[in-house]
Amino acid sequence: MFSRKNYQKILLVILAVAISIISFLSIKTIASADELSTDTGVFLSQPHNTRDLGGVITTSGRHVKNNELVRSDSLNQTTANDAMVLRENHHVTNIIDFRSNAEVTVAPDKNLAWFFYQHQAISPQLSYLDGTHSIKSIVKKVRQGHQTGDQIMLDMYDYIADSQQSVTAYKTLFKTLLTNDNATLYHCTSGKDRTGVATALILTALGSDKQTIDLNYLESNSYRQIKVNNDLQRARKYTKSQRILDVIQDMESVKQPYLDEYFNELTSRYGGVTQYLHNQLGLTDQDIQQLQSKYLAA
């Protein structure tokens, strides 16, 4: 018969094997995610969510070229050196800004002399938005409201799906992508919602599947983690309410249901994302082929 000591040894061996298997599967999962959605952080002095889409794969096995498509958060603190990095290292010549008129007035992009700048506002009419995006202002507005953070964000994604502003802005984006011989940078304030949707549309046109698009979208949480933590810390100076802090956390984050809401709304209103690209944004089959030829590498 086995002694208690032998049983303990056997249990330790089983535990070690189990841990090894779990670690192996975790590594494989991470590797699979990286293979599906690989972009590269563009490290500037201030923006927290600036990324080169080079490396993101498509269902054909091709991938997005480097230094062609750059997504970002606000450029209102861009230094001259940042501008040089974007222009010289990433070949950016065109910038498209999806922020509202109020956001642009309060915090205009800086050091734009080297770029062709286009402002194409997408302005969700949500009660907490006032252009300043100050934590004190957001805390005050959330305290006065009764919506959950998730409902606020779902409303935003419905607006992005339904509004004529979005159609106009995204039409301009794709027209620029079709005609610009260099890299295009597009952005909003946090680089996660209006910019996340724009990226989903681009990757759909280029032939990426939904899983790849979702993974790229969710990466904003990693890029913005320090910023979100800092904002929550500042919010605690103005409130002790966990409800308010939870709402701010949701508003500062991306979640799968938010992007799913956008795609579901496109399906409900227009028949799907492909139909939206063709019938609302005016992209022809030839345009799609041109985009894929221009932005994809083997």
Question: Can you describe this structure?
Answer:
GO terms for molecular function: phosphoprotein phosphatase activity. This is Protein tyrosine serine phosphatase. Pfam families: Y_phosphatase3 (PF13350). The chain has 298 residues and is an alpha/beta fold. It folds into 2 domains: 1-36; 39-297, Protein tyrosine phosphatase superfamily (Protein-Tyrosine Phosphatase, Chain A), CATH 3.90.190. The protein is built from 14 helices and 8 strands. It has helices at residues 4-36, 80-89, 101-106, 135-144, 149-162, 164-179, 194-206, 210-218, 220-223, 225-235, 242-251, 256-270, 273-280, 285-295; strands at 40-41, 51-52, 63-64, 69-72, 92-97, 116-119, 183-187, 296-297. Strands 1-2-4-7-5-6 form a 6-stranded mixed sheet. A two-stranded antiparallel sheet has the order 3-8. Helix 3 links the parallel strand 5 and strand 6 (116-119). Helix 12 packs across helix 13. Residues 11-34 have low confidence and may be disordered.
